[in-house]
Specification:
By secondary structure, this protein is of the alpha+beta class. Helix content is 39%, strand content 20%. The protein folds into 2 domains: 166 residues, Sandwich (Jelly Rolls); 102 residues, Arc Repressor Mutant, subunit A, CATH 1.10.10. The longest helix has 19 residues.
């Protein structure tokens, strides 16, 4: 049985059969242009595991082959070939290898202080599909240049392509489904409201089931899960930037009391609101 968010601690486990290739920003100055802290390609087998209780930046994982599990939105989810997983900064992020087949994936971790707009935000899809190969090809191209000529101009171009591709993937809806995009923009401006699925569907001029299908396809979340995601993103900003009591924060993000808010926040983010506020630098 997978660990719950409450059971996790900061962990880095590779195991004897894991193979890793990575570059860090301290070794490649061009990475700092886009606040990329490190990136790489992993071939992992159990007991490979990573747990980052409060990562300092967005995280992107692109699965090429094999399968693993990743903790996103407060729940463990299976990662299959073709999937891209997007995790925001300062939210519990964990992933691990599963089964007997090597889990091969490209990954990118950013360095984004709280005053920086992150690449992955509350509106980003959690597990967009069928784009992992694109990211893996770019990372492999960057690797070939790094292990070959290491020409700064070429490294810069590869990194521009990588960052641009990730930013495009992290922007949901784009030109598709403008009515639903407007719905979530409106919801984000009024998170105090006691939104129901029926009201969300009515505002987007579609049935609840059709809205659910659209959100699962574009975001990897149900409408009500995405509402929670938006609320937790606002709550994190309020805890980082203001000193209001938890009761005030809870009300501003649509919860009836601090106890309910704290329970949801801890499940979603990985720590209690008070711990989160105390740990933000």
């Amino acid at each position: 049985m997978a660990s719950t968010p409450h059971d996790l601690i900061e962990t880095t486990t590779d195991g004897p059969k894991t193979r890793r290739w990575l570059i860090e920003a301290r070794d490649c100055a061009e990475m700092s242009t886009h606040r990329i802290a490190r990136l790489g390609m992993d071939e992992a087998l159990p007991p490979y595991r990573r747990v980052r209780m409060s990562p300092g930046g967005s995280f992107v994982l692109a699965c090429v082959s094999g399968e693993g599990s990743i903790l996103l939105d407060g729940r463990w989810q299976r990662v299959k070939p073709g999937m891209v997983c997007l995790a925001p900064p300062r939210v519990l992020n964990a992933f691990e290898a599963k089964g007997r087949e090597k889990w091969c994936f490209a990954w990118v971790r950013y360095d984004e202080p709280s005053f920086v707009t992150p690449v992955v935000g509350a509106a980003s899809p959690v597990m967009p599909g069928a784009q992992a190969e694109e990211i893996a090809r770019i990372v492999n191209g960057l690797r070939a240049e790094w292990e070959g000529e290491k020409e700064p101009r070429m490294l810069h171009h590869w990194l521009e392509l990588l960052h641009g591709t990730i930013r495009r993937i992290a922007q949901p809806w784009r030109s598709k489904e403008p009515r639903v995009a407007k719905l979530w923009a409106d919801v984000e401006q009024d998170l105090r409201r006691d939104w129901t699925l029926a009201e969300l569907a009515h505002r987007s001029h579609c049935s609840p089931e059709h809205l659910r299908r659209l959100c699962m396809r574009e975001l990897g979340r149900s409408p009500m899960q995405h509402l929670t995601c938006l609320r937790m993103e606002l709550a994190r900003r309020l805890l980082e930037q203001e000193n209001d009591k938890l009761e005030v924060v809870a009300a501003r993000v649509g919860y009836a009391n601090a106890a309910i808010f704290s329970r949801v926040f801890r499940r979603w983010v990985g720590v209690a609101p008070g711990e989160y506020r105390g740990g933000v630098v």
